[in-house]
Amino acid sequence: MQTPHKHVRRSRSLSFCRLLLALATIGLAARAHAQDWVHIESSNGVDRIRVAAAGFKPLSADASTQGYKHLFDNTLYTDLSNAGIFDLVSQSLAPTATPGSPSEMVVAQWAAAPANAAMVAFGSLNVAGSTVVVNGWLYDTKNSVDPKVLGAQYSEPASDESVRQIAHRFADEIILRLGGGLPGIAETHIYYVHSSGGNKEIWEMDYDGQSPHAVTHLGTVSLSPRISPDGNRLAFASLGRDGWNIRIFSMLLGRMVSFPAIGGTNLSPAWASDGRQLAFSSSRTGDPEIYISDSTGGGLRRITSYRGPDVSPVWNPRTNSQIAWISGRTGLPQLYIMDTDGTNVQRMTDGGYATSPSWSPNGQFLAFAWDRKYGPGAPGGQDIYVMEVSTRKWIQLTHDAGRCDFPSWSPDGRHIVFESVSGKNSAIWTMLADGTGRHKLTSSGGDSMPNWSWK
Amino acid sequence: MNVSLLSFRKLSLAAVVAVGLAGVAGCHHRNSMPINTTPDSAPVAGPAPTATLTADPVAIDLGQSVVLNWRTQNATTVTIDGIGNVNLNGTTNASPSTSTNFHLTATGPGGSTEASVRVTVRVPEVPAAPAAGPEDLTSEQLFHQNVQDIFFDYDSSDLRPEAAATITQAAAFLTAHPTAKVVIGGYCDDRGSAEYNLALGETRANSAKSALVAAGVPASRLRVISYGKEKQFCTDETEACWQQNRRAQFSLDR
Lengths: 455, 254
Hints:
The complex is a heterodimer.
Chain A: H1 5-24, H2 29-32, E1 49-53, E2 57-58, H3 63-82, E3 86-88, H4 107-111, E4 119-128, E5 131-140, E6 148-157, H5 160-178, E7 189-196, E8 199-206, E9 213-214, E10 222-227, E11 233-240, E12 243-250, E13 255-257, E14 266-271, E15 277-282, E16 289-294, E17 301-302, E18 310-315, E19 322-327, E20 334-339, E21 346-347, E22 353-359, E23 365-371, E24 383-388, E25 394-396, E26 403-409, E27 415-422, E28 425-432, E29 439-440, E30 447-452
Parallel strand pairs in A: 1-3, 1-4, 2-4
Antiparallel strand pairs in A: 4-5, 5-6, 7-8, 7-30, 8-9, 10-11, 11-12, 12-13, 14-15, 15-16, 16-17, 18-19, 19-20, 20-21, 22-23, 23-24, 24-25, 26-27, 27-28, 28-29
Chain B: H1 5-22, E1 50-56, E2 59-61, E3 66-73, E4 77-80, E5 84-86, E6 90-94, E7 100-108, E8 111-122, H2 140-146, E9 150-151, H3 163-176, E10 182-187, H4 194-214, E11 222-228, H5 239-245, E12 247-252
Parallel strand pairs in B: 2-8, 10-11
Antiparallel strand pairs in B: 1-3, 3-6, 4-5, 4-7, 7-8, 9-12, 10-12
Helix pairs in contact in B: 3-4
């Protein structure tokens, strides 16, 4: 088993810095016993498999096929790299061979040093008329008898978009088989707020930041997009003449569908994982409180009643029997959880300024934004944290990465997308759920409030 | 990811220590008295300066003056915006023509510290027109002279003491103009989270609404909209600017 040397070294140097800080403040060491570690398992118990992605073989020599081939190779490599579960053979160490079919595949070439691949993905790409055809295989280099793990053929109208989507689908097939049975995220989408000319519209992009495009064209300020679990309905809060209302856009119909305006300021909708209920904040009775309704706005019931702002509810997607939310009932906003009938209220954060929770798909963790040193002139940063719900132990995922907010879990629970603001520049970033592999997805300077699709 | 457990242990241990160091920032300034800021403790050549800046009174009528009073420690240079370099401790008179944030910077070998204080200037009350009809309300200026914005402290939706005069004046005007309907917009400065600030802006606007209702204005004439940090008047990263944004703003509901 190969070790991810680079990664381990980085972790050590990081923790060494932290250790120095800890030593410098030894007087407080006693408090440190209260906080043990939280282990976020991105790999789900599977050791990192060393995987190579061979360049796909173009079956015709024309320029467009070459262009598609490079787009395909780059997308597949990036998807496998982003997955965070592979030790990916760098392109400089991989053989230059481009086997286009099993008969051209010499497994020993990939198993040997310096590639040392345990698995190799390869195949061919062809443009026939207006159709692009991709054949892809995944081979186990340690299995000389029956090396084929996966073989797949994709045929789509030829376009850059199709080629990217085929690469995403092939990557997800590989990740599903090698990633402990969890579906990959290469075909998922991210919904977010795009600011332009004083208005804010809801936009959608692929998980890797490609194909950004507008969903709404309402000409006002719309915030807090939350896609339904089936991907068919997009809920958000929108500013109208009478204030803020929950609005729903049908992805199937391509237009707004009705949701009742109930009065007051209505914010931050959140879907239950069965898609049948919405939780949101409403001030219809004067003070912002958490409400639950069915997916069309009926059956409205209020579940908090305490003076001060209550906002940003999210469901425990595992059970739909608990809600985490943000409340300013004791002053600065803090993270709380409660049962969906409003009982069992528990405060999770012990101070600072905590906002924007997102509940992990397995129900175990809450990601949220936290400024632990918040106050007038305080130098502290607002960073993304993950807390284990059962123990309230937490780890800080971002450091000196701008003012971070609005974390949202990927459906596989291995990734978190979030907003980072530096100066007046707001961008969407993604990272693995342990804080590594951080990279920027948007560059317009006005993108915020990302929400990862459920599938 | 096989992140070593060891590294997580140290990370979270350091994080707890950091919490211990930082303490909990309560930061509820219930009046407009000094807002001290202390920079991050970079390597320091001496103790960080401290500074306080107060104004007496904090609210004046146009043409009156206030006494600014400041005290610093560990500072070598003290400046007040708009006044310039001043003594390390001192007092001065000021007659601002509009509501003003006085902002002091104290610099010493140990870094620099800021303090500020807001002085509210009341514009003279314009005699209310008797038995006004809607046509008289077309004057936005008349409305805004009498129904003025209310400003809030950091992360607070409680009315400051000086807001009482503003509310009284506004309620008198609205009582004299019984057909006027009002939208109260709640605003926040651009720090903090967008969703939470919308809820906070709502509670700020509601505070202003409750005060007007208590002063006799029927609730049916008042409508609340929170803008959170979505519509900022001022976008500088300064306390003076943040203060302009933390407000309940009244406008005619047409």
